[in-house]
Amino acid sequence: MKDLRLLPKVRDSWSYLYIEHARIEQDNQAVAVFDAAGKVAVPCASLSLLMLGPGTAITQAAVRTLADNGCMIMWVGEQGVRVYGIGMGETRSSRNLLHQAQLWADPQSRIGVVRRLYAMRFPGGLDESLSLRQIRGKEGIRVRTAYARASRATGVPWEGRSYHRDQWRATNPVNRALSTANSCLYGICHAAIVAAGFSPALGFIHTGKMLSFVYDIADLYKAAVSIPVAFEVAADGPEDLESRVRYTLRDAFAHTRVLQRIIPDIEVALGMIPTPAPESDVDAALPGGLWDPEIGEADGGVNWADVEGH
What we know:
Blueprint: E1 14-19, E2 22-27, E3 30-35, E4 38-42, E5 47-52, E6 56-58, H1 60-68, E7 72-76, E8 83-86, H2 95-105, H3 107-119, H4 132-154, H5 173-195, H6 212-218, H7 222-234, H8 241-256, H9 258-269, E9 290-292, E10 296-298
Parallel strand pairs: 1-5, 2-6, 5-7
Antiparallel strand pairs: 2-3, 3-4, 7-8, 9-10
Helix pairs in contact: 2-3, 4-7, 5-6, 5-7, 5-8, 5-9, 7-8
């Protein structure tokens, strides 16, 4: 294979690192974080996502090093709740995106993906005779049950999902914990989706947002990961809540092997059979191809006025 970035090893990486009020610079062949406490080296080659919070500065050399090592950078709001921008992922091939777009554009294939995404959340699968509206009803019951189960296990009262970004501190602790946990879960799903060359915007269940496909995939793991963690942390009190959620969730991601599951789960949902990348598929040093309705793809980087017969 000419370009190893066709198959990024997301499953072998750490999940994410959140940093605020610090400066990030290149340090030899890696990067380091400088703050009031001193310097901390960051093993960027084994990191999937770096979340930059308020008060963070990063040098151009550090960004280049992170990009070379396949670590996606995300600029986020306080505690990682809002996402303002992201960097480009590791892959240089568009074949996964083209496959996703083809499924998304055809109503029949899209409903097939929707059904598979829902079926993956139920251990016994789903009856094929169920309508989409009936499936949504079963999914609502499943999520409601997950909240009730976590509430009973931790003793944290649950009165429903409710929060307002502009009144963050007025929101009760468990809802703040859920928002923080879900934001981190969206972050690593986003990192894996972009790293593998899919579009975060082309959702099948969700639609109309630039992160629609991120929401589709993250919903596979909420009941098992982010919901239990949020209730567990909220049960210990509101002090330093968001920070404790991030640390606990990072351990939970490692324990449940979420990063090892995301891309295989996407391949299952999109009906893909993993195959070795053809050796000539992508060479990062060469220009991309040109679409042609007759031959499929023509060579790029060619002045076709100089080609015989044109």
